[in-house]
Amino acid sequence: MRRESTGSLFGRADEPGADGEPHEAGPPADAPLAERMRPRSLDEYVGQGHLLGEGKLIRRLVGGKAALPSLILWGPPGTGKTTLARLLATAGGARFVPLSAVLSGVKELREAIAEAREARRRGRRTTLFVDEIHRFNKSQQDALLPAVEDGTVVLIGATTENPSFEVNAALLSRARVLTLQPLAPADVLALLRRALADADRGLADLNPSVSDEELDRLARGAAGDARVALTALEAAVLATEPAADGSRAVDRETLAEALGRARYAYDKGGEEHYNLISAYIKSLRNSDVDASLYWLARLIEGGADPVFIARRQCIFASEDVGMADPRAMVQAASAAQVVQMIGLPEGLYPLSQATILLARAPKSNAIKRAYFAAAADAAATAREPVPLHLRNAVTSLMKSEGYGEGYRYVHDDPEARGKMECLPPSLRGRTYYEP
């Protein structure tokens, strides 16, 4: 049986701090693995090097003498927003008061602020952490303003939504927005290995073994979400029956079930990534709407970057539809812009809309054929000079050399379009674009 937690950075629940107040207890032994494995110090924190690297913003804030400013932590799920908030509060010696915007309202906010004022009178600062702050309405966010303004609390809000749209301008002006990125596969892999090796908080006492290949696949399938990866790992280990010697050899099938087969099979850096996008593009080219939507769903549900899909749609709109339906480029570009703005899951709608239009659009690769035919001639005649009549005579010397001589301005001379040759002499009469 796993040992009881003996405490963490936050201390035991029954262990008073120097100010006589009890510190927050570490997570109980039966808490989910992702909760038990929360880093206990900034040195244990993995990822977000652009904020936590040597000399970066968070390191400077923690190492300096200035008080921590109010912050809005913006990033996808499982990137460490809550953990970072806890560590920043603890590093500064402040009380850490967590609230969930899903479960709390103005009443709870006022109670927390009143307690913070009392703690301030006793010389103790308070960090008020509001998870999913975007779920607070305007009046609830406004209730925070006075306490943030006068320093009663240092606010740290966490959100998966763009703060520009979801957080009041008045609150934004009093806080710094820090953007957290999805964890790199190497970072997720490091967290998985740590959990497997830790006997106190992790899974080592269950004697699990997972091959490097499968652990790497799990790290990639989690799509940058540490909580997803750790939850899947714990489920897979617990679902694996121990051998006679007590060891648990976790296989691919169990990990796939724990993570979800689509996510586990999809590997952004592996062959399956290219197989899926190839199937998607070829289905679009074949004007098969249903197959195109299916492969799109495989990509999205497997964890593909929606911006990557949108980029491929833009390429397809010009390469495979082109002048047969110029609206396709407009649709693809609009979908890409919307996906950049709203992300997933809602981004699946513009991606699906663009997919249907691209699949149904008439197809033409005339643009592609035209360009590469012209490119072949450009390479073969790269040393051939530009005809004099197409050159600009920007100096008197150039004019005396014949630059611009014979050029016909089509707006004043409509016959120029048919009579003035614009290709080099060796390519006269060559046709590249054939609608």
Describe the structure.
By secondary structure, the protein is of the alpha/beta class. The chain has 4 domains: 48-179, P-loop containing nucleotide triphosphate hydrolases (Rossmann fold, 3-Layer(aba) Sandwich), CATH 3.40.50.300; 185-265, Helicase, Ruva Protein, domain 3 (Orthogonal Bundle); 271-360, Up-down Bundle (Zinc Finger, Delta Prime, domain 3), CATH 1.20.272; 383-427, no CATH class. It is built from 21 helices and 7 strands. Helix 6 (138-149) links the parallel strand 3 and strand 4 (154-159). Helix 11 (226-239) crosses helix 12 and helix 16 (306-321) packs parallel to helix 18 (348-360). The chain is extended. The termini are far apart.
Topology:
Blueprint: H1 33-36, H2 49-52, H3 57-63, E1 71-74, H4 81-91, E2 95-100, H5 106-121, E3 126-131, H6 138-149, E4 154-159, H7 163-166, H8 169-172, E5 176-179, H9 185-197, E6 208-209, H10 212-221, H11 226-239, E7 248-249, H12 252-259, H13 261-265, H14 271-285, H15 289-301, H16 306-321, H17 327-342, H18 348-360, H19 366-380, H20 396-400, H21 416-419
Parallel strand pairs: 1-4, 1-5, 2-3, 3-4, 6-7
**Structural class based on helices, strands and sheet pairing:** alpha/beta
The averaged pLDDT comes out at: 86
Strand arrangement, largest sheet?
Answer: 2-3-4-1-5
Work out the count of structural domains: 4
β-strand percent reads 5-15%
What's the number of helices?
21
Sheet with most strands: 5 strands, parallel
Q: Using the coordinates above, name the CATH class of the largest domain.
A: Alpha Beta
- Please give the radius of gyration in angstroms: 30 Å
Query: Number of DSSP strands?
Result: 7
**Shape, principal axes of CA atoms:** extended
Task: Name the helicity range.
Answer: 40-55%
The CATH topology of the largest domain turns out to be Rossmann fold
The stretches of 5 or more residues where confidence is low (pLDDT under 50) are: 1-23
Secondary-structure arrangement, i.e. CATH architecture of the largest domain: 3-Layer(aba) Sandwich
Order of helices and strands: HHHEHEHEHEHHEHEHHEHHHHHHHHHH
